[in-house]
Amino acid sequence: MPVPVDENPAYAQYAHPERLVSTEWLAAHLNDENLVVLESDEDILLYSTGHIPGALKVDWHTELNDEVTRDYVDGEGFARLMKAKGIARDTTVVIYGDKSNWWAAYALWVFSLFGHEDVRLLDGGRDKWIAEGRELSTEKPAARPVADYPVIERDDSQIRAYLPQVLEHLGNPLIDVRSPEEYTGERTHMPAYPEEGALRGGHIPTAASVPWARAAAEDGTFRSREELEAIYLDEAGLKPGDDVVAYCRIGERSSHTWFVLTHLLGFEKVRNYDGSWTEWGNAVRVPIVRGAEPGELPAQLAGRA
Amino acid sequence: MSQTPAALTEIVEEFTEVPEADRLELLLEFSRELPELPPRLAEHPELLEQVVECQSPLFLVVEVGHDENRLTRLFFSAPPEAPTTRGFASVLAAGLDGAPAAEILAVADDMPQSLGLSRALSPLRMRGMTAMLGRIKRQVREQLEA
């Protein structure tokens, strides 16, 4: 039986309200047969300190990334992972995590690369669940029966951008979701202080700076559509119908922004550049701008778009 | 030449002797055992240095003693919602607190790599750990020179 959507009227304002569930809704549906709850955290030990009863852990680093190549798992790897977690192709998956669902959104984005249809975020994530005093468990959930999951080839063409595609994209809107210090290229580089993972600091020319966490309210839930439009449309200058690329350091924080732009604001062409600054800031001869201003495109690229 | 403190060597052995799958569990146990800050520091968070390379807020302060061996105290503060960061701080607390300054300086800079967690933890996380050790050693050096 399909799992119903959360009819919470607060979500009706968003482009795809079915992508969110509230803590109340989840508490009431924890035992739904065709629902699997996954916790995806930045701190991978956090799950073991207590999780939503019955929730399984998904580890972005060891389970969603390929171990050798800097890439995500392939179709076979994803199918194996889904089977092991008892997730079938038609299972409803609700993902939640720490830090306003930062890594939960990353996991959701990877699920979307494989076209898993019904994958939702718990609005407010782990922190809201705990703040409301809801039950946590340290018990290992009973293994779900191994499910049948088809091998689906990952589709990187719609929501993922590679470096050459970002170069092609220059002239179109880019959102840099890192902190202001990362955006300007300021560095902490003193003796006995380890260096950052990129050889150059700064941002991709013309990218607007919108730190990802601005999309989240104090309690970790998403801001209202009106507030989000003020940030991304009025302030960052996006226009409905825009083709947008978002990036951060390795593509995790920008998955959160990808979720906001795609599912809450309804942009239809948003790609996450997961190579992000750890690729761009190390690449040879790609244009970079330092400082607080978005900057101009280099002359040979200007006037293309 | 000074040796790495024996307590730290033992902890490293403890990690490498268990199967890889159990190492995170061990780190979690350490995270639960991180000593609280003494009140004189808890009331003065400005005395602690933030390790900005860590993904979660972690603060530390080193106090090199004035005795002959320059026995050194280490204090850490990290929130409970950051168990990985706490776990590593706790490894350093258990392994280095009370050791002579020279022994702390003798710890290899890449000691975090020797815990056998490099597959389970992300590179950024490993770098945070290395940074924690780097800042400890820097504080020790600064106090020895003062």
Considering residues with a beta carbon less than 8 A from a beta carbon on another chain, report the largest interface and each chain's count. Answer: A-B, 18 and 30 residues
Helix run count of chain B: 6
What shape does the CA trace of chain A take? globular
Query: What is the global morphology of chain B?
Result: globular
The value of Rg of chain B in angstroms is 14 Å
Low-pLDDT runs of 5+ residues of chain A are: 188-194
Mean pLDDT of chain A: 93
Give the SSE string of chain A.
EHEEHHEHEHHEHEHEHEH
Number of strands of chain B: 3
E-strand count of chain A = 9
Q: What does the main sheet of chain B amount to?
A: 3 strands, antiparallel
Written overview of the protein:
The complex is a heterodimer of chains A (305) and B (146). Chain A has 305 residues and is of the alpha/beta class. Chain A contains ten helices and nine strands. Chain A has helices spanning 23-29, 60-64, 75-84, 98-113, 125-131, 163-169, 180-184, 225-235, 253-264, 276-280; strands at 20-21, 35-39, 56-57, 92-96, 119-122, 174-176, 208-209, 243-247, 269-273. In chain A, strand 4 (92-96), helix 4 and strand 5 form a beta-alpha-beta unit. Chain B is mainly α and 146 residues long. Chain B contains six helices and three strands. Chain B has a three-stranded antiparallel sheet. The chains are: A alpha/beta (305), B mainly alpha (146). Chain A binds chain B through residues 42-46, 48-49, 61-62, 67, 98, 188, 191-194, 197, 250, and chain B through 24-25, 27-28, 31, 52-53, 55-56, 80-85, 87, 119-124, 127, 130-131, 134-135, 137-138, 141.
Produce a short descriptive summary:
The complex is a heterodimer of chains A (305) and B (146). By secondary structure, chain A is an alpha/beta fold.
What layout of secondary structure does this protein have?
The complex is a heterodimer of chains A (305) and B (146).
Chain A: E1 20-21, H1 23-29, E2 35-39, E3 56-57, H2 60-64, H3 75-84, E4 92-96, H4 98-113, E5 119-122, H5 125-131, H6 163-169, E6 174-176, H7 180-184, E7 208-209, H8 225-235, E8 243-247, H9 253-264, E9 269-273, H10 276-280
Parallel strand pairs in A: 1-5, 2-3, 2-4, 4-5, 6-7, 6-8, 8-9
Helix pairs in contact in A: 4-9
Chain B: H1 6-17, H2 20-32, H3 39-42, E1 49-50, E2 59-64, E3 72-77, H4 83-96, H5 101-105, H6 123-145
Antiparallel strand pairs in B: 1-2, 2-3
